[in-house]
Task: structure prediction
Amino acid sequence: MGYIADRTQQRGVCNIGIAIIGAVGFAMLLGSKQPSVQYAGTFLGALGIYPCIANTITWASNNTEGVYKRGVTLGIVIGWGNLNGVVSSNIYRRQDAPTYYVGHGVVFAYLVLFLLGGSTLMYFLLRRENASRRAGKRDNLVVGKSEQEVEALGDV
Result:
């Protein structure tokens, strides 16, 4: 996915597409009792989560101006991702075996709300911001400033 996201410069679209695949996978895990369907759902679920990790980190980094803002943003994104290890150790409980409806349901909700919803929201907000910049609506922020002052705006 990284190759496609790099070549097309559409990380948001890639995240959205992959998140849909992951949601389908977890829906299969939740909705079927057939082992073959659950097995396929496991692979689709993993396919929908793991590629988005690196893509999301890169996307957040590429769209944050200023070294300090970028550092804080990456800390939040990576920290949020690391919290998922804590969450998963508590939602996949032994008493829910072998179906793990609670665990799969929480991951499905996370995929839909945060990965799919967050990627969709960020995609459209960035499109709007880029359109404003192309139309010159942000030029007033840099008029009369030196190159160093404009570069420092990212960290203000």
Remarks:
- DSSP finds six helices and no strands in the chain.
- Residues 132 and 138 are 7 Å apart (CA to CA).
- The longest helix spans residues 101-134.
- The chain has a mean pLDDT of 92.
